[in-house]
């Protein structure tokens, strides 16, 4: 309970922040809360104090994901004051990083993008103003555009850094701030990728030295607003990934979930020859309220219901769904193994394997012609092990990284990468990040080629199962109101891991926090069973959850594949129930 002394200290801090706030909207918001805290009804005072305590519990932390949080006034929220401080810290970091390159090379080059969420454009302009005043050469994308366009621009413009203002698939009340480094700051395989340690802590240290947003110089002009040619260059570059001789007879339903990917994705598909494309009308225009979905993430239940309804109406062959900033891609198809009319969303591991198999053949052929080390297919530690089997079968290398494309995109020799959370990188030389638009194009091309043979993506998955075994994956999550329960849960699982997985004896328990020669330490526990079943348990990096990634493997041989799928599905369901009970999930 807040004492009078505590309240006095809190009020002082709030008033100091208000006096430094450059945004009249958040200034007024905090002033209202302060009035309620000091002179409201008992109920109003309790609610206002609790809200202010949360907003002022510390500065919104800058890490490997940059910033992400709810919009609002105060240091523990996304707002102009926090963004201005962050931009000033980034400017100082870049100046320090480039200081050893000589007087004629000190000016950092930074490209800034933004999506259509609330305040994204204002945060981007503030960033451009701060960087320009700090002596940087700042380039602002011309309008709200997908994250992959920003990642492309970092490479295309040889920028030392990139900033993307987006909260990706977070709820409507959130916004975020991603940072990419390249140019002269980061070279090699990580050039143009999102930040990793220790860069995040170095930038955070510079941010912490900025004690006043009002004191940060902001230019009124001087940055460059890029023309439409940057978007056109991205569209042309992605469209060139397609085989012009490939069939294009395919009816596609496309949704951008009220995000910024719709126009760009349609432009790419059209330029590549896919003209029978049907956007979901209710979700085609950017809308920061995301009115038709409870959560703007295509993986969430119900998120692509409207797209499936359109697919049924127009008798589509394929549904493609991007998340709001279009760096991820979901795929739905008719599946003869599914109930009802058969439409279902493919799991990220299924799409990851399909793309891996599709790309592996040409990659292997090119490598054989060129000689030298074969290229690498990469997947995250929580993704299916099937990609490793695919790489081996084609004579390619396979790498496993920590979760997140900040790690995947840094793999030396990378040709393709994916993670199970519907993120795919099919052109790492130009976009060092997941790209839901280029992935959508390659999925469409694969589906069209199969359709010309009278086959489907499900047939291609069956081919993989017959060749490598059937790999089925799933996920169980436990959400915690008390954050202290998350490390306690992890310690309990380390101390008493399961002895069996769905009846099969456990053969290995690996504490991922110790790391290996190939994998840095990360918080998590890996459990392997005799029959090949695998469970990885780890805290979420973005939500108050413990997540469990499950995978079972079934030999197919000469068995009827439908029966094998049914048995493997029952095995996965039993494993899900066991792990759910272990976490206390009903």
Textual characterization of the structure:
The protein has 586 residues and is of the alpha/beta class. It folds into 5 domains: 1-57, no CATH class; 60-227, Alpha-D-Glucose-1,6-Bisphosphate, subunit A, domain 3 (Alpha-D-Glucose-1,6-Bisphosphate, Chain A, domain 3, 3-Layer(aba) Sandwich); 233-346, Alpha-D-Glucose-1,6-Bisphosphate, subunit A, domain 3 (Alpha-D-Glucose-1,6-Bisphosphate, Chain A, domain 3, 3-Layer(aba) Sandwich), CATH 3.40.120.10; 349-464, Alpha-D-Glucose-1,6-Bisphosphate, Chain A, domain 3, CATH 3.40.120.10; 470-583, Alpha-D-phosphohexomutase, C-terminal domain (TATA-Binding Protein), CATH 3.30.310. The chain has 17 helices and 22 strands. The protein has helices at 4-20, 24-39, 42-55, 80-98, 120-133, 147-156, 199-208, 229-239, 262-271, 305-314, 348-370, 386-393, 405-408, 436-452, 457-468, 485-495, 561-583; strands at 67-70, 109-114, 137-140, 161-165, 174-181, 193-194, 224-225, 252-255, 277-279, 318-322, 329-334, 343-345, 376-380, 397-401, 414-419, 423-425, 470-479, 500-501, 504-511, 525-529, 534-539, 545-554. The strands form 4 sheets. Strands 1, 2, 3, 4, 5, 6 and 7 form a 7-stranded mixed sheet that branches. It has a 6-stranded antiparallel sheet with strand order 17-22-21-20-19-18. Helix 4 (80-98) packs across helix 7 (199-208), helix 8 crosses helix 9 and helix 11 packs across helix 14 (436-452). It is globular. It starts with a helix and ends with a helix. The mean pLDDT is 95.
């Amino acid at each position: 309970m807040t004492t009078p002394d505590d309240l006095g200290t809190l009020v002082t801090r709030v008033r100091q922040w208000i006096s430094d706030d450059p945004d009249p909207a958040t200034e007024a918001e905090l002033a209202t809360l302060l009035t309620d805290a000091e002179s409201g009804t008992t109920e109003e005072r309790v609610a206002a104090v609790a809200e202010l305590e949360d907003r002022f519990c510390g500065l919104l932390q800058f890490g490997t994901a940059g910033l992400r949080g709810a919009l609002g006034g105060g240091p523990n929220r996304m707002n102009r004051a926090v963004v201005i401080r962050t931009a000033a810290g980034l400017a100082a970091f870049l100046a320090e990083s480039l200081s050893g390159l000589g007087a004629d090379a000190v000016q950092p080059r930074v490209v800034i993008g933004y999506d259509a969420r609330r305040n994204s454009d204002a945060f981007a302009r503030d960033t451009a103003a701060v960087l320009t005043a700090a002596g940087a050469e700042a380039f602002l994308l011309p309008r709200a555009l997908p994250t992959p366009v920003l990642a492309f621009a970092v490479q295309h413009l040889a920028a030392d850094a990139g900033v993307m203002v987006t909260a990706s698939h977070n709820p409507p009340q959130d916004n975020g701030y991603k940072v990419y480094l390249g140019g002269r700051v980061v070279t090699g395989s990580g050039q143009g990728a999102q930040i990793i340690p220790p860069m995040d802590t170095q930038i955070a240290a510079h941010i912490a030295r900025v004690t006043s947003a009002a004191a940060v110089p902001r230019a009124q002009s001087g940055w460059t607003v890029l023309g439409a040619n940057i978007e056109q260059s991205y569209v042309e570059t992605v469209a060139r990934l397609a085989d012009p001789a490939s069939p294009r007879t395919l009816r596609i339903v496309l949704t951008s979930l009220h995000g910024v990917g719709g126009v760009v994705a349609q432009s790419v598909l059209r330029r590549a020859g896919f003209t029978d494309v049907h956007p979901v009308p209710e979700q085609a225009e950017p809308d920061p309220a995301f009115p038709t979905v409870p959560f703007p993430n295509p993986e969430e239940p119900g998120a692509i219901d409207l797209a499936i309804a359109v697919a049924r109406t127009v008798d589509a062959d394929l549904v493609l769904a991007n998340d709001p900033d279009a760096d991820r891609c979901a795929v739905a198809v008719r599946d003869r193994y599914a109930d009802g009319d058969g439409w279902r969303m493919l799991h990220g591991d299924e799409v990851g394997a399909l793309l891996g198999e599709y790309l592996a053949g040409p990659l292997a052929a090119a490598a054989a012609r060129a000689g030298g080390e074969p290229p690498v297919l990469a997947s995250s530690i929580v993704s299916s092990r099937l990609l490793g089997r695919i790489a081996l079968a084609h004579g390619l290398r396979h790498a496993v990284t920590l979760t997140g494309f900040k790690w995947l995109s840094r793999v030396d020799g990378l040709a393709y990468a994916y993670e199970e959370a519907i993120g795919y990188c099919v052109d790492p030389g130009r976009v060092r990040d997941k790209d839901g638009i280029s992935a959508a194009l390659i999925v469409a091309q694969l589906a069209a080629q199969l359709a010309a043979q009278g086959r489907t993506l499900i047939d291609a998955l069956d081919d993989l199962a017959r060749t490598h075994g059937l790999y089925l994956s799933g996920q169980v999550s436990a959400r915690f109101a008390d954050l202290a329960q998350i490390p306690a849960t992890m310690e309990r699982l380390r101390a008493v891991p399961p002895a069996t997985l769905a009846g099969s004896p456990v053969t290995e328990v690996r504490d991922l926090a110790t790391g290996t020669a190939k994998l840095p330490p990360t918080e998590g526990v890996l459990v392997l069973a005799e029959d090949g079943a695998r469970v990885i348990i780890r805290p979420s990096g973005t939500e108050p959850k413990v997540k469990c990634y499950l995978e079972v493997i079934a030999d197919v041989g000469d068995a009827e594949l439908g029966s094998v799928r049914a048995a493997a599905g029952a095995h996965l369901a039993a494993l899900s129930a066991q792990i759910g009970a272990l976490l206390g999930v009903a």
